[in-house]
Amino acid sequence: MQQPGTTTTLSKEMQDCVDACMSCHSICEESMSSCLQMGGQAQMQIMRALMDCTEITRICADMMMRRSPMAAEMCRMCARACDMCAEACMGMPEDPLMMRCAESCRRCAEMCRTMAGAAA
Amino acid sequence: MQQPGTTTTLSKEMQDCVDACMSCHSICEESMSSCLQMGGQAQMQIMRALMDCTEITRICADMMMRRSPMAAEMCRMCARACDMCAEACMGMPEDPLMMRCAESCRRCAEMCRTMAGAAA
Amino acid sequence: MQQPGTTTTLSKEMQDCVDACMSCHSICEESMSSCLQMGGQAQMQIMRALMDCTEITRICADMMMRRSPMAAEMCRMCARACDMCAEACMGMPEDPLMMRCAESCRRCAEMCRTMAGAAA
Amino acid sequence: MQQPGTTTTLSKEMQDCVDACMSCHSICEESMSSCLQMGGQAQMQIMRALMDCTEITRICADMMMRRSPMAAEMCRMCARACDMCAEACMGMPEDPLMMRCAESCRRCAEMCRTMAGAAA
């Protein structure tokens, strides 16, 4: 039997990637709330990207934290969801929240791609 | 139409509660991974509490972030899930991870109870 | 040790409640997609109710299926989320999908209330 | 503006794939509960596969239902999660629930692969 607690430390790189996913998830949730309050057609297009991105960043962080054998593959998919969401958010350059969301998505995409490559 | 980004700032108290929920969610995911590696009967009992707690802290944070009208009610339920999980983790006092998990659950329970009361 | 598979059968009532939650979850997902395509202000208000309802019906079904000790409490909360979502959907009586969604929410609310009472 | 409800019907193939994902999700939740009750080392290995499979089948069904542009990609990933879970369940041939779970995973994997190919 495993010693209690011995294998629970994530590598620095993976912990940073988890943090990036969770930050991105959080700002996507806030952005969804903001889009719903504004309620225009442009916002609805962004909502679709946000809904995918918020779910996939969340599941990606969870899979890394529980050392899923599919975590690297989910990181690859998460990077693409973040790319799409960043692009959608860039369609509203006048909205500071969307700009912060795009930035968080891009950072998360980059870290997930590195993680996917490192684990492959 | 709402000005872009104007209503997106959470109160300090709510942001702290969101952070406590997300920290608790993270450590629950790590604790689940550890329990699965150890694999004893005691761990399996803790797993059930961890599975509820990790899901409910996550949905509770998300509902606060998107200003759900049911957020206060979910905070009340989250506090109970955290109480049960803390108690389960206390059954393994020799495991430092479980002790950290119990502590995180207790802190989250306290903040969720405050938030539920404040919003009620 | 438990015999394999011996305790895995849900009661008829609980299975029916799980099915009602999953049906409600499915139609909420479809309704969200429809609201995003239509994109008006009324739809955005409904979206908030749909987002809560789809998540809570899902987690409620999962908690019943895995025999969570908090399943009854989640059923109570699920009933309220379904009530709110049904009311929101009723705001669009000209949309057949929203009418079907409201009906599914009402049925799920009723079954969850029964289940919460039965388990309490 | 879109006519209410006009675009909400999924193709027969996609609806069948959604149903397969949701069935697989349900039986994975039941299997997790059973594994936790039995609590042996073999069960713990299966738990990891079940946890990935139950989350990915759920998100895959949701993404199809809300017409996510990433649904095909998630179907591909879901097929692999189901393959891994079926293989894990096959390690307990004496447990009827695990055998039904493996069968549900295989069927879901097949339908997701078809769906991923059809949408590509």
UniProtKB/TrEMBL annotation, chains A, B, C, D:
It holds the Pfam family Csp. This is Cysteine-rich protein YhjQ. InterPro entries: Csp_YhjQ (IPR005560), YHJQ-like (IPR044543). It comes from the Bacteria. Gene3D superfamilies: 1.20.1270.360. The lineage of its organism: Bacteria, Bacillati, Actinomycetota, Actinomycetes, Kitasatosporales.
